[in-house]
Amino acid sequence: MTALTKEDIEIATRAAEHFTRLYYTAYDSPTRVDDVPNFYRPNSAMTWNGNPYGGVDAVRELMAKMPPTKHEVQSYDCHPIPGSQPPSLLITVSGSVTHGGGPAANPASTPAKSVDGQPRVFTQTFILSPDSTTPPASGGLPTYYITADTMRFVG
After folding, report:
1. Which residue, of 64, 77, 98, 114, has the greatest Cβ tally within 10 A?
2. CB-based contacts of 53: which residues, under 8 Å, 6+ apart?
């Protein structure tokens, strides 16, 4: 197994910041049904709260069924996975997400303890693979796509 270099760690750190910003901006945008699937490939796997989805079309269908979102990323961490150059990345993200218009958008009949429209704590883990078919992104960073993605509400 190839040891990680300081450059691998620097690439991972920059790529994680870049990816996290782009991904959640796309996810929260009105055009997410078209934008978010671009992060995936036909062989990508996603698990959303225990429900499996495979490939770009399934991600697009999930995005189309979901109400608008607003993510607040509190933290993320990235670890380069040795074995490829540039390395694949394991990224873990935690934060909160509000679906719909927030509590003020709920009908008056919504129970006070309902999670509808309330911020919910989530954790999301991604495995990103370098995309050799696309030129490097801004700042010379490799272009990555999501190989695997699992999202879970934790609160």
Report:
1. 98
2. 45, 46, 47, 59, 61, 62
43, two tokens:
């062989």
Instruction: Give whole-number Cα distances, 145 to 71, 118, 137, 140, in Å.
Output: 20, 30, 12, 16
Task: With cut-offs at 50, 70 and 90, classify the pLDDT of residue 143.
Answer: confident
**Domain extents for the chain?**
6-102+117-153
Residue 29 DSSP code: S
CA–CA distance, 116 with 112 (Å, rounded to integer): 10
CATH number of the domain at 6-102+117-153, please? 3.10.450.50
Burial 76-99 (b: 16+ CB within 10 A, else e): bebbbeeeeebbbbbbebebbbbb
Q: What pLDDT score does 103 carry?
A: 62
Three-state SS for 104-137 is HHCCCCCCCCCCCCCCEEEEEEEEEEECCCCCCC
pTM: 0.85
Rg, C-alpha atoms of the chain? 17
Angle (CA) 143-149-152 rounded to 5° is 140
